[in-house]
Design goal:
Blueprint lengths: L7 H18 L3 H20 L3 H15 L3 H8 L1 H12 L1
């Protein structure tokens, strides 16, 4: 007897809207705004299928390419390059 997961997404939205309304009624605007940001992120990630981690990785890769630092990723990811290049960069 498992949980029906089809109600998880809309249920979470309703619960967060209730929490935001409760915070609004208590004049806790900072908490209400935080809850609304969380709600917006949940809706964004559900509708697009992308998370903030993926967007961050894309931004880092584009910055690295823009400054010509594509070797940095190979140096960090590839263990074979770590030994000699790491020792040379430290000395």
């Amino acid at each position: 007897m498992g949980i029906d997961e089809s109600w998880l997404y809309p249920g979470m939205i309703v619960v967060l809207l209730i929490f935001a309304f409760m915070q609004w009624r208590e004049n806790a605007t900072k908490t209400m705004i935080f809850i609304l940001f969380v709600l917006a992120y949940i809706i964004f990630s559900h509708e697009t299928g992308h998370s903030l981690g993926e967007l961050k990785e894309e931004a880092i890769e584009s910055f690295d390419e823009a400054v010509g630092n594509s070797k940095y990723k190979q140096w960090v990811v590839t263990p074979a390059l770590r030994g000699d290049e790491a020792n040379r960069s430290v000395k």
